[in-house]
Amino acid sequence: MKLKGKTAIVTGASRLDGIGAAICLELARNGCDLFFTYWTAYDQEMPWGIEANEPQMLLEELKKIGVKAKALELDLAQPDAAAVLMETIVREMGSPDILINNAAYSTTGHFTELTAEVWDRHYAVNIRGTALLCSQFAKSFKKKTGGRIINLSSGQFQGAMPGELAYATTKGAIDAMTITLAAETAALGITVNAINPGPTDTGWMDENLKEHLKERFPFGRLGKPHDAAKLVQFLASPDAEWITGQIIHSEGGFIR
């Protein structure tokens, strides 16, 4: 129960099969209170889809574990989303100790077909929304020690991602932001790190892709949401107080 008495924000925890939900559950099992965001309209547009009651089911599961838990449906692409989120959590649960930026926007397509609208949407969620939320979190943090910001990256600097130029570009910026932000927030008692979980089976892969990717994992299996969640829990804990400004590639030795 290393996180007992702590409160965490987790963005993008819409789907029960997703990394966001796994992070929430792992933190809760370690005593952490949770406030998570979700945006079902995005998942409904994607091939994997979502059941309308999945966020509510996650909320109920967290409460069964015995921690305080609340959720807010929020479009992080909106300019005021970060301020709205922070005002809500401070009002309902107090100042948070941990921020996990898991939410992301991603579409696929040839780079010649990218439009200004597509680029702007990727930027608004993946960079601006994340950066503004980090800023709001830092301003609300008053404890001078034990603060944590954990960003989810996707290994953009490990290799090319054809067909995902807008996603790769905007998520790649998260790595750069993590390093500089860590230097700026250290004086506030906040560590900042990023995790690249590698290809993770969260319901978006078809069977052919699963078999293709499985061959490239030395352990003979795909990444699972709990793999990323356990690393997040470690970085959020007191055991990681001397780790900051790092991009950790926790991807099971994935061979590119």
User: Helical segment tally?
Assistant: 8
Q: What can be said about the biggest beta sheet?
A: 7 strands, parallel
Strand content: 5-15%
Q: Kindly state the mean pLDDT as a whole number?
A: 92
Q: Multimeric state of these chains?
A: single chain
| Unreliably modeled segments | none
Specify the helix fraction band. Answer: 40-55%
Gap between N and C termini:
37 Å
Sequence of strands across the biggest β-sheet: 3-2-1-4-5-6-7
Radius of gyration of CA atoms, rounded to a whole number = 17 Å
Q: Given the C-alpha coordinates, what overall shape results? A: globular
Classify the secondary structure makeup into a structural class: alpha/beta
Strand and helix order = EHEHHEHEHEHEHHE
Number of separate strands: 7
Describe the structure.
The protein is of the alpha/beta class and 256 residues long. Helices cover 42% and strands 14% of the residues. The protein contains eight helices and seven strands, in the order E-H-E-H-H-E-H-E-H-E-H-E-H-H-E. The protein has helices at 19-29, 40-45, 54-65, 81-93, 116-140, 165-185, 207-214, 225-236; strands at residues 7-10, 33-38, 69-73, 98-101, 147-152, 190-196, 246-249. A seven-stranded parallel sheet has the order 3-2-1-4-5-6-7, sandwiched between helices. The chain is globular, with a radius of gyration of 17 Å. The protein starts with 6 loop residues before the first strand and ends in a 7-residue tail after the last strand. The mean pLDDT is 92.
